[in-house]
Predict the structure of Forkhead box protein N3.
Amino acid sequence: MAPERPGPDDDAATLVHRGPVSIPVVPIFSLPSAIVQLKEGDGAGNLITAVKVEDVMSEERESNEDDDLTSLSWLQDKNLLKAANFSGCVQCFGGVLRGVAQVSKYRRGVGAGMNIRAAETQESPTSDYVEDGGSDLADSTSSSGHSASPAPGSSTKSTPSTCPTTLWVHDMKGAFTTSHKFSCYFGSQDLNVKICPNLSYSFFVIEMWAAREQIHVHTNSKPPYSFSCLIFMAIEDSPVKALPVKEIYAWILDHFPYFQNAPTGWKNSVRHNLSLNKCFRKVEKAPNLGKGSLWMVDSLYRPNLVQALQKAPYHPYTSSEHGGGKEYIPSSAHLSRHNTVAVFKSSQRAPRPGTLVPRLDMFLPRRQQPEDVDDPDSLDDVDAAAAMLALKHGHRVITLDRGQLVHTVLKRWDMCLQDTPVQCWKQLHTRDPSLYCHPESQRSRHVNTLQQRLYCLTEPLLPPNKGHASSRVRHWRAAPILPAPRGLDKHL
DNA sequence: GCCGGAGTAAACATGC
DNA sequence: CGCATGTTTACTCCGG
């Protein structure tokens, strides 16, 4: 029997489990930076137990040295735990991203130890754990971030049309002593996520991740974001921080199904916005990569977009919409703790369930703190950036005074992108083994991707208007692979 | 009422 | 020619 599924016009109550903890499914964009607001009396006390996660997890690790859980060393990252704040709501910020990545790794069978039950009915979650390896849920590495494929050997349904509609996520004391690998496939539709008591942080991450799928269920209302915000999110969500307009369309369609049935004029609006909005600028892409240009966010105007996003309505559920109560407005103390937060005002309309919550941490500048210069990790990037500059402009830039170099590179780096192409550079120019782990058939494509990525990253560093873009691309692609500049070797 | 931002529609150019 | 992409203009709506 098909479980009841909340329709687009249903309120949060239909998503709420009757059990002691009821967390509205959090529709989020790329996971972190979501705030789950609990309605009064619906389990906030239980959630507070999540504060104990740190202890629980460390105890579990100590007592299960050989358990697969040890692969979840990311949980030792205190930042993850610091990122949680349990003052009536669950707040989840940048630190979670790493966790999610690990979860992604985890669900590919590297780790184990979760009890996840996929059910087709909304009965009480007491049994029928799905135990399996090789889980293959939505591929978080995909650009659209929502693809899903059946898990081989899954004991649950294996096609989107028959996928389980309810995913119970358990965290029971001692659960980690047994090795429950899970295989719970669900498609990009029809998924409710129910969180059981004693939710641990790791499961919260799962929940967040799973909730990502929820985006596709209820997003039938017009997004509360301007087109510039949508474009911004799309571009920022891309691996190279640049997208052709077609991909921007696709991203928007992926994340906001509203547009699937919207009049086609919205594409016009997107193009109009790209052309008119000074926040976006066009970058010629390699001539062999199809027609059209790549669109990037102009770093000069990036703060404007971040600000626009921050002004966007935030919380998917407001209590005023669902049974009364107060809206969540982060305190100033909270604001000081987390520089990534969106505030929604009472006068602003809140997004409906299923609309996106921007992952704001992703859009904030990552390398603007001067102290980063002294950070060995950032020097790694600096050297890579310097290497890339050298790639284009010869060793002259490398011979600058170190301090000046750092300053220059950082400045230009910020102008370029906040991304870190160091891995890309390494792979391309050091015969990184990871490049050769790709099958022969995919290697050239991978190299092409890397080259495109590097081009996007370095294009802003090129002298403007020096020849046609395509010739510059050719020139760049033909650029000799220079030896790593001094100081970079140790990082390679 | 004014102004600016945002959304929408449309015309037009360009290139594949 | 059709279509996608990109630019520009004009208009409306809305909130400050």
